[in-house]
Amino acid sequence: MLDERWLTNHGPYVAELESTLADMIGVRNVVATCNGTLALELAIRALGLHGEVIVPSFTFVATAHALRWSGIRPVFCDIDPLTHTIDASHAERLITPRTTGILGVHVWGAASDVAGLEAVAGERNLALVFDAAHALACTHQGRSIGGFGNAEVFSFHATKVANAFEGGAIATDDDGLAERLRLLGNFGFSDEDRVVTLGTNAKMTEAAACMGLTSLESLDAFVEHNRRNFLLYDEMLRDVPGVRLMRPREGERSNFHYVVLEVTDVAGLRRDELHKVLRAERVLARRYFYPGCHRLEPYCSDPAGSAPLPVTERVCEQVLCLPTGTSVDPDDVAIVCGLIQEALDHAGEVRARLVDLDGNPRA
Question: Does residue 96 lie within any of the structural domains?
Answer without folding.
Answer: yes
